[in-house]
Every structure is written in C-alpha cells, then in structure tokens.
Amino acid sequence: MKKYYFIYLLSVFILLIPKVKAQQDTIKLFSVKKNKENIEICISSKKGFIIGSERYVLHIGDSYFTKSIHPDGNENLIVFKIDFDSFSAIKNNNEMVLVYGLFDSNIKNKKTIGENRTFSGKHWKIGVLDKDLLNK
Fold first, then answer.
1. What's the pTM value of the predicted model, to 2 decimals?
2. Is 16 within a domain?
3. Which residue range(s) make up the domain with 103?
4. For residues 56 and 79, is the Cβ–Cβ distance under 8 A?
5. What confidence tens digit (pLDDT) does each residue in 4-61 have?
6. Do 130 and 92 touch, CB atoms closer than 8 A?
7. What are the residues whose beta carbons fall under 8 Å from the beta carbon of 100, sequence distance 6 or more?
8. In angstroms, rounded to a whole number, what is the distance separating the alpha carbons of residues 110 and 23?
9. Which of 61, 63, 56 is nearest to 113 (CA)?
10. Quick check: helix, strand or coil at residue 28?
C-alpha cells in the first residue's frame, strides 16, 4: 500500500512540474531608445506586469529610476524614462534589476553592487546595460 501511495505522489509531482515552469515569467530588456526629451528603457514581460498600488523600480548599478509608463496601456511592456544626465552617469555594463516596489533597503544597499547584490521584494535580474544598444 505504501508503495502505491509513493508512486501516486511521485506521479502527481511529475505532472505538476510543467505547470510550475509554465507559470514562470520571462522578463527581459526589449529596447533602449533616445528621443528629444530622454532615454527610454523598455522591458517586456511574457505574462504581463502587475498593475497595482506599488510601482516598478529599475535599478542600474547604484542608480534607480521610478518614472515609467505602460505604452498604450500595454501591460506586457514597461518603459522607464531617464533624463540624459542620469543616463550619462550610469556606467556601461552595470547590472539591471527590476523591482516591484520602492524599498529603502534596496536604495541604501550600494555597498554590494554587482552579481552578489541582494534585493528586497519581488525582483528580476534583467542583465547588464549595454549603452551601445541605444537606438539599435
């Protein structure tokens, strides 16, 4: 009886694995563009971004940005608008992390910049900012 129960549990577990993987989101850098007013960093989400009371915060190195929009109400895209001076101050190839929520601990935790940096709240590592992608 225990043997059958174990096999049953194992089969349920195996059947659930694809569903868990399917629920995972793919969030990635979509584009980096320059316009007359600012630099726009667009990030895409396969499942769509959470639309709620919190804001998304884009951390690039030790800088962070909160000014964003969902273009044309598209919940699968979020565009961060960064002024020219702030963008110039960012070092090329700095790590980019998107966080759902503005947390003091993430803003103050500048001593651990890099791959080992930890973030509070729901977050996604987007990769590194390659400034050569501007308008490509």
1. 0.75
2. no
3. 26-133
4. no
5. 554 554 454 454 444 444 445 688 989 999 999 999 999 999 988 888 888 899 999 8
6. yes
7. 50, 54, 56, 57, 121, 122, 123
8. 32
9. 61
10. strand
Neighbours of 68 (CB within 10 A): 21
Evaluate whether residue 58 is within a structural domain.
Answer: yes
The CATH number of whichever domain residue 37 belongs to comes to 2.60.40
What would the two tokens of residue 33 be?
A: 């563009």
Residue pLDDT, tens place only, 54-107 = 889 999 988 999 999 999 989 999 999 999 999 999 999 988 999 888 777 766
Domain count for the chain, please give it: 1
7 membership: H or E segment, kind and range: helix 2-23
Could you tell me where the beta strands, DSSP code E, fall in 17-130? 27-34, 39-45, 56-60, 63-65, 68-69, 77-82, 95-100, 123-128
71, 75, 86, 92: which is closest to 39 by C-alpha?
86
Place of tokens 């070092």: 91
Residue 18 lies in a domain: no
Radius of gyration of the chain, Cα coordinates, nearest whole angstrom: 19
Alpha carbons 93 and 113: distance in angstroms, whole number: 12
Contact 133, 43 (CB under 8 A): no
- Answer whether residue 41 is part of any domain: yes
